[in-house]
Amino acid sequence: MEVFKLNPRTNLRRLMEKIGVDPGGIGIMAQKELGNLFFIEALPCGGANILKQDALSIGAELAVPRGTPNCSRKVVDALLMATTQQLRQLVKKEKTQPFQLKELAKKLESFLNPPKFPLQLMGVINANDDSFFSGSRFKGEEAVKKIEEMIEEGADIIDLGGVSSRPGSKYPGEEVELERVKPILDAIYQNKLYEKVKFSLDTFSPKVLQYGLERGVTIANDITGGESGEYLQLVAEYGAQLVIMHKKGDPETMQKNPYYRNVILEVDHFFRERIARATQMGVKEIILDVGIGFGKRLVDNMLLLRHLNHFTHFGYPLLVGASRKSLIAGAMEELGKNSPPPEERLPGSLILHREAVENGASIIRCHDVKEHYQGLKVAEVMEEMETGWELST
Question: Going along the chain, which residue ranges are E strands?
Fold first, then answer.
């Protein structure tokens, strides 16, 4: 049995049709707005019937396929709709029930009261010449100047990288990577820039990471998601934060026909495994990144952004980096429009990142700090004013 949380704006009618709900029930349930929406996959039929009755008894709703009352199928997919208060009641009820409902209650409970994290902007500095967006490439004094500019523009974190991880890229080796980032890390340390802003190092190399940790870096941004035990030991030893990012395959081949049966659940399973591994190695602080554009199709990227709130159940900050990536071009191609180059993808970046924040992201990795700061802060002010119903006189 699997459970994942859906965006409340999901097309309920289409989803209920897909799982085989009776047409008469679809019309009634599709009109309900209960706040929390969960897809339950492979629920034992006996459990589905109990859960249906318990949900109805408290005003919640469970959409199930035709034939569920007489258990013509051993397992069914179901759609649970409930307010937060109803969800609490349902969790309490199911903790005493059979047919895997105790397990379901535990999973649903993990979605109640996820921690809130302040919104942070992560600016991007690339010390290599082959990153996909030329506007992010800086070296030496130019890099220091850009870092100071990003701090003025509102960056909370600066993410420094020395190698490209774009689709088709090849890793040049530790020595080349270190040679590229070393002058910038030295300047950060000498100018005490780490006192003004947090620094993240985008590397999977233990050698490069250690050099950075000794010079003011406090966040290890690992596209392998904590694959190396040596790397995890360093993160734990220095008390740094670890970014666990999901990717499918290596940068050189990851965009060659990636496929997911359910991208939400696959990423969820990956995080579960890598979090356990990292914490066992002594890592205390973790950030999760679903890896937009890393071994994913357009539909996979969009689903992860739309249903990002699902991953809040882990209790860690969520990082999203969709800045100027190719999914923006892919979306335009879906509309029959010309594919814009990275230099023309700022509007799409702002929209995708606004969606991510609405759905639970608290760290936005972007090339354009000034524009993101303004856009996201204006949206924040708008939301705060929506909660104040007092009319000015």
Answer: 2-6, 36-44, 61-63, 75-82, 120-126, 157-161, 198-202, 217-222, 241-245, 285-289, 318-320, 363-366
Query: For the stretch 370-390, what's the b/e string if a residue is b when 16 or more beta carbons lie within 10 angstroms of its beta carbon?
Result: bebbebbeeeeeeeeeeeeee
Residue 242: what residue type?
A: L
Look up the CATH number of the domain holding residue 210: 3.20.20.20
Are 322 and 253 within one domain?
yes
Catalytic residues: 325, 365
Give the span between the Cα atoms of 210 and 168, in whole angstroms.
27
Residue 209 domain boundaries: 120-381
Tokens of 343: 């230099």
Per-residue pLDDT tens digits for 41-66: 999 999 999 999 999 999 999 999 99
> Residue 288 forms beta bridges with which residues?
244, 318
Spatial separation of the C-alpha atoms in residues 176 and 157, rounded to whole Å: 24
What is the identity of the amino acid at 365?
R
Taking the model in full, what pTM does it have?
A: 0.92
